[in-house]
Amino acid sequence: MISVPTDRLVDDYLRRLEHAAGHLPRPRRAELVTEIREHIDSALGDRADVGEATVRNVLERLGPPEEIVAAIEPPPPEPTRAGAVEVVALIALLLPLLGWLLGAVLVLVSRAWSTRDKVIGLTLLFLPVVVFALAFSLRGPSGIPEQGSPGAEPSAGITEGSPGGVIGPVELLVIVANGVPSALYLGWRLRPDRRTSPARR
């Protein structure tokens, strides 16, 4: 029979084991705790004079609960926390032109985002710029389609210096707000509940 103090030693050990195995599926976690409890009971036997020293020796031979779990299935690595690099990157993405370049570099060197997050975030940033640049080049400096390009109309009466070459409201909106979708997506991916793997219960 195990006394109350020694019984608490076993319970504490099993609680540590269950906590260390928190990343395992619930059935596997319960199975592991049951196996270790049976092993402890078998090692202690049916003696009526089991003392604290005996229980401690049994638990020491088993080893720390964390090592038992690591031998079965190591816990997933802790994600890198967002720091100054990520904060500056998100702010830079909101600043046109040079800010986009600085933000893109910081996103690439960051360890807080996965490769997939970086690809999606930078695609959201640069794809609209590429599309806008292609559309602008087809229109030509006067703001109308180039002669010979698809959909081109005769440009009689419109000179190269006409107001058509001035940046319009759509272009200005692209320049000012282009980095917003990328910053929002990457900021969303930094949320703790998105970056950690929940325990499979």
What does this structure look like?
The chain folds into 2 domains: 4-72, no CATH class; 84-195, no CATH class. The protein is mainly alpha-helical and 201 residues long. It contains 10 helices and no strands. The chain is rod-shaped. 62% of the residues lie in helices and 0% in strands. The protein starts with a helix and ends in a 6-residue tail after the last helix.
Spell out the blueprint of helices and strands.
Blueprint: H1 4-20, H2 26-44, H3 52-62, H4 65-72, H5 84-93, H6 98-109, H7 115-139, H8 169-177, H9 180-189, H10 192-195
Helix pairs in contact: 1-2, 1-3, 1-4, 5-6, 5-9, 7-9
What is the subunit organization of this protein?
single chain
Number of domains: 2
> Which residue ranges are poorly predicted, with pLDDT under 50 across at least 5 consecutive positions?
154-164, 196-201
Structural class: mainly alpha
What is the beta-strand fraction? Answer: under 5%
Distance between the termini: 34 Å
Radius of gyration: 32 Å
State the shape.
rod-shaped
Q: Helix amount, in percent?
A: 55-70%
- E-strand count: 0
List SSEs in N-to-C order. HHHHHHHHHH
Q: Which whole number gives the mean pLDDT?
A: 79
Number of helices: 10
Largest sheet: none
